[in-house]
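hey
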């Protein structure tokens, strides 16, 4: 099973806008059975009011999907924390009077069930961050925002496993606390588990914090010259043979959209552990 995690940067293309492909075109070039998405817009003016989770799912031929917003409003402008009433999935239709949202998404070739959303409060401080800009990146002071994780069971022909996708705080210490909270929540599930997303934790820190198996150790940021790994796929409950095979398959795909590479692994479809 091919698993991907991709921070979309709400669909921004870091190439000449006149030559930039659409989000659907880029997503359609990715092959996956399961994808976790971060920095995802829904009904934002800045991204042409697109429903980006649905666009990616449709382009990739993944019929089951869910979007969970972290905030209602626009990052860096006016916003408030979102609620679970704003969750949207393949089972819902558009109302035509939607508020702008920003959060994370999950799309799957296989049915998803037992969906749960875990919310994290924002850190009470701002930090200077390097953000994409033309002609070169620039440093700005950014306030943290609430964060969110989607947890779900994926029902494959060979058994059920649990997944979670998230985008954690960029504030040191808060992201570690959030990751620990997420793994504690996942410990209540009985299936093998995968966590994937943009943890804002470099290198091996997430593996050290969770004691889980890292399925990829590759730099994912920035796309034009990857130097650091912020995007991760962690596993618990899988045999060492499966972990090794997944690690050997890992790829970081530099795509025309986003400043993060898409991280890809092939997880053998067996859920036994040693």
């Amino acid at each position: 099973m091919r698993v991907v995690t991709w921070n979309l940067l709400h669909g921004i293309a870091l190439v000449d806008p006149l030559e930039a492909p659409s989000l659907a075109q880029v997503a359609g070039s990715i092959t996956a059975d399961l994808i976790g998405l971060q920095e995802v817009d829904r009904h934002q003016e800045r991204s042409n009011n697109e429903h980006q989770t649905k666009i990616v799912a449709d382009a990739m031929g993944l019929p089951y999907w869910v979007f969970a917003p972290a905030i209602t409003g626009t990052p860096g402008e006016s916003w408030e924390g979102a609620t679970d009433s704003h969750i949207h999935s393949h089972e819902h239709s558009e109302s035509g009077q939607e508020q702008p949202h920003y959060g994370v998404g999950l799309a799957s070739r296989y049915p998803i069930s037992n969906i749960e959303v875990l919310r994290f409060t924002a850190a009470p401080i701002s930090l200077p961050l390097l953000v994409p800009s033309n002609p070169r990146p620039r440093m700005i002071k950014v306030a943290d925002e609430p964060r969110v994780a989607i947890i779900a069971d994926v029902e494959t022909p060979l058994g059920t496993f649990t997944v979670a996708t998230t985008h954690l705080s960029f504030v040191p210490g808060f992201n570690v606390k959030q990751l620990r909270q997420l793994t504690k929540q996942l410990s209540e599930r009985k299936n093998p588990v995968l966590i994937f997303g943009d943890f804002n934790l470099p290198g091996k820190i997430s593996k050290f914090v969770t004691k889980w198996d890292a399925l990829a150790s590759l730099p994912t940021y920035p796309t034009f010259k990857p130097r650091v790994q912020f995007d991760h796929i962690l596993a618990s409950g899988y045999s060492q043979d499966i972990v090794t095979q997944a690690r050997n398959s890992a790829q970081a795909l530099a795509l025309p959209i986003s400043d993060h590479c898409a991280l890809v692994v092939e997880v053998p479809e067996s859920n036994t552990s040693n």
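The chain has a mean pLDDT of 92. The longest strand covers residues 64-73.
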